[in-house]
Amino acid sequence: MFCPSCGQQTFIASSEKSFQCSECAFTFFKNTASAVLAIIRCQDEILVAVRAREPGKGMWDFPGGFVDYNESLEQALFRELEEELAFKAENARYFGSCPNTYRYKDVVYKTCDAFFAIELKQKPNMQANDDVADVKWVKTSEIQTDKFAFDSARKALALYLAD
Question: N or C: which end of the chain has fewer CB within 10 A?
């Protein structure tokens, strides 16, 4: 592999999470990507998003996505909700995070998924856009956790419902 600093073909893995150049000593760290997701609840129902793309195409997820550079978790959450649902959230309560493994085009990304809760008094108009094929309101008593694409979403849902 070529070093991104000096261009020499002397870039080798020095640990599970880093690579180092034996020529110029540049070290590259494989850092965890940040993602945000919202559990949106209205009375006894929770909004689930049906994934439009791999990984997990056709499976359930919570709306959200990756945090962009120079963006806070909250900014990313509100941007993603608007992109995916045409929904302008006014507030959200952070309640936890879970590590996740996200396989995309045969590359494994490690993520830290930050979960937020949004409680609504009435259901707003939402439309599936971007990475979302469909949205569904599901009664909390009827949620089937095996339909979720990611283990982090299942864990966050259990944490949320236990709160």
Answer: C
Q: What strands lie across the sheet with 27-29, from one edge to the other? A: 11-15, 18-21, 27-29
The residue whose two tokens read 């909390």 is: 140
Q: How many of the other CB atoms lie within 10 Å of CB of 76?
A: 19
Neighbours of 57 (CB within 10 A): 12
Cα dihedral sign, 148-161-83-67? negative
What pLDDT digit, counting tens, does each position of 37-49 carry? Answer: 999 999 999 999 9
Residue count of the chain? 163
Of 141, 119, 137, 120, nearest in space to 128 by CA: 137
CB 38 within 8 A of CB 118: yes
Q: How do residues 108-149 score in pLDDT, each as one tens digit?
A: 889 999 999 999 999 999 999 989 999 999 999 999 999 999
Q: Are 67 and 143 in contact (CB under 8 A)?
A: no
Rg (CA), the chain: 19
